[in-house]
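#struct-queue
[09:14] JT: dropping the first one here, sequence first, then the structure tokens:
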Amino acid sequence: MKKIVMGAAALLCAASMFAVDFAATVKMAGDIAGGAVTEGTSDATYIWKLNSNDQKDGDALKLSVSGDQAGASFQFWYKYTAGAAPTAATTGALVNEWDNTSGYKKDTLSYKTSGSETITHYDTAITTNSMLQARSTSIWVKPIDQLKITIGDVSCGTFSNKLDYYKDPAGNSYNAAIGWNGGYSSYASVEGAGIAAELTPIEGLTVVAGIAAGCDTNFITFVENASKATVKAYGASVMYNLSAAAGIPMNIGVSWRDAGTDADKVLAVGADYGNAYADGFYGMINGRFFFSKAIKSYGWSDITLADVKLTGISIDNFFQYKAGAMTIALRAPVVIRGLAGKAADGTTIDASNDPSYMYWSAKFSYALDGLTVYVAAGSDYDDSNNAWVFWKERPENTFNVTIHPGVTFNVGACAFDIGARFDIKDAVNKPGSTTEWYRPFAWSIPFTATIGF
């Protein structure tokens, strides 16, 4: 009994030294109704569909403890499929790093279920059945006020758009960009499992450096008789806020992200102006220079280069204007490709195998008493990763667009988002023809219901 009392007292004492925060959200999403218009097939109309929703926009569970000089955090995602028990067998490995051949990829794991296809999920490792997955776990310490060291899941961002928070093009090739393996990343220098140090030597200046080799993976490996050591992912960033020094509401930053030996690398230089969360104008431009040794060509076959070289430039951007109840937001990032010259086998790199492309999305919203109305549109709106390709011989991959008017409101603690969605998709060949095209059209009445506590 004495041991139990002493143990309880120790726990209470430890708890009193830390601030403990717990948050959870439950999100349901689906369609009240929907349909499609196609050529050569029957039109489909449906009533009510509840999605097997990945709770990733807001973490399902967050737990953090923090003190003056140390702390830790846990963040969890889940996939909702009516409470089915996990039955999947692992067919891949949790990499938790920037993939050295495919570009940006984090926590990717392939699962195969009985009677189902193998599914590889970006940014989370979950089965087709319900499963709670630890998205991020880390411990941090502050030996001095100006230095913070994080071990576990580390990440560093400089500039990103506020409209589609993770859709910041890295500069990779179009066929990498239309998948989740290399198109987007809002992180600038490091992302994944590793260690990072954040230094704030003077007011306004933040320097971050770290390595993210992944779990059970050496950062540097020295191999006997090898010409050079093998290095995994690492990076660094420098950000300076001009408000402290010059009274200007502006940040400037530079970052370097390196996936390791003979792997993809990104140099980014950017700036923003204004306050994205206050009335008035806010703007951000971030140039990303993408270096790689391979190109995922427009014909879906990789093109190998003789060495790592500049293959793409992404001009990421975001602009917003807020005035009282009204908010207007726009992003239109452009990715310039076809810069590599010649492949290792002499193939010319041009628009036919490495085209340039762009994304865009815009949103107008107006807050009324008790609700907010909005109209949103874009090429890669929501989870549709469709770029507009700058190649006149392939017009089917241009001018796809989603239009989504809607309204948000609360019923008690539950936040609702209900709207109407209209999708004009990439053109496809008409049935029986290789020269005639048409654009499939789909419509739906989507909804989300979210409670946070």
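[09:21] JT: and here's the second one, same format:
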Amino acid sequence: MLKEESISNLQLLYLVMLTQIGTRVLILPYDETKYAGTHG
């Protein structure tokens, strides 16, 4: 067990990747609705 409370570079990379993916998943339905509303 580590003495310091810190995360490794790999954990930081995963955190950033999951944040980016989560943000895109949340934004995607909004973009689809906006597109369908103006072109449907």
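[09:30] RK: nice, looked through the second one.
[09:31] RK: The CA atoms of residues 8 and 14 lie 10 Å apart.
[09:31] JT: good to know. Residues 9-39 form the longest helix (31 residues).
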